[in-house]
Amino acid sequence: MGTQDIVRALEGLRRQLPWLDRVEVEFRDDSAGEPAIFVRLVVCSGVEDLFEDGARLMDARRQVRAVLDETGIELWPFIGFVSADEVEAA
Amino acid sequence: MSQAEDLLAHARSLVRADARRPKQATLRLAVSCAYRALFLRLRHDATRKLIPGNSSQARELRRILSRCFEHGTMAHASRAFAGGGNNAWAAGAGVIPADLREVAWVFAELQEARHLADYDQLGPALRRSECVALVASSERAFAAWASVRSTTAGRAYLVALLIKPRR
User: Fold this and answer.
1) Which of A69, A79, A82, A87 is nearest to A37 (CA)?
2) B140 to A55: CB separation less than 8 angstroms, yes or no
3) Do A37 and A75 form a contact (C-beta atoms < 8 A)?
4) Is the CB of B130 less than 8 angstroms away from the CB of A30?
5) How far apart are CA B65 and CA B42, in angstroms?
6) Residue A78 DSSP class
7) How far apart are CA B57 and CA B127, in angstroms?
């Protein structure tokens, strides 16, 4: 399963996570040299309070993990959050 | 306030600083502090559980023990307790409470983020929002840890952070 397949599967989470603008996925080694999958959830404008809410962030991580488990990916997922505004401004 | 809580508060103040144009050094330090805070919290509890008491000998033994923690062992244990990878301590701990899985997961996330923040200055710039999320996750992990630190699984996690099981 390729990166785009994973992105498509994760973007299906928009129903449960209405603040989700898009998903970025990268396969690379982690800092210990072990293969991992890095998922970045790009968050729509105007949902700044999400970044302050550790419980909601963890809930989103769990949902991403569930989708990844369904795809059969066995790599450890690192899951980050960033605002679309900041990504576009860069 | 403990050193761990001080560091967590410092991480929070750093991500709030210069909200419009935060400096990379400030954001990177915030991530580092958020990780370090959780690291210290767990290490403190592990050493206290293994060597209780307030005698000078107990304090000295805790000081020695506190220097035996290895970040790699802690990461592997954390992934296992978060539901990824094998670890005899995690397997033997029985049902792992959701709050403990969360602590372990956040620890693994923060350790990786901290590594990039501290050692990959030439890599992609950190965004303020992602750093705020990491600090909030660390704060949430502190709260979750308080509810599971005295459970059997919580104690198994503390041991797993220190002692790598034989395969």
Assistant:
1) A79
2) yes
3) yes
4) no
5) 13
6) E
7) 46
Instruction: Provide, as residue numbers in chain A, all residues whose Cβ is less than 8 Å from the Cβ of B136.
Output: 51-54, 57
Nearest residue in chain A measured CA to CA from B114 = A31
* Secondary structure in 3-state letters for chain B: CCHHHHHHHHHHHHHHCCCCCCCHHHHHHHHHHHHHHHHHHHHHHHHHHHCCCCCHHHHHHHHHHHCCCCHHHHHHHHHHHCCCCCCHHHHHCCCCCHHHHHHHHHHHHHHHHHHHHHHCCCCCCCCHHHHHHHHHHHHHHHHHHHHHCCCHHHHHHHHHHHCCCCC
pLDDT at position B167 over 80: no
CA distance B128 to A10: 24
Does pLDDT of A27 surpass 70?
yes
Between chains, do B127 and A83 touch, taking CB under 8 Å as contact?
A: yes
Q: For the whole model, what pTM was predicted?
A: 0.94
Residues B122-150: what's their mean pLDDT? 96
DSSP helix/strand/coil, A90:
coil
Q: Do B109 and A31 touch (CB under 8 A)?
A: no
The answer on pLDDT for A90 being more than 80 is no
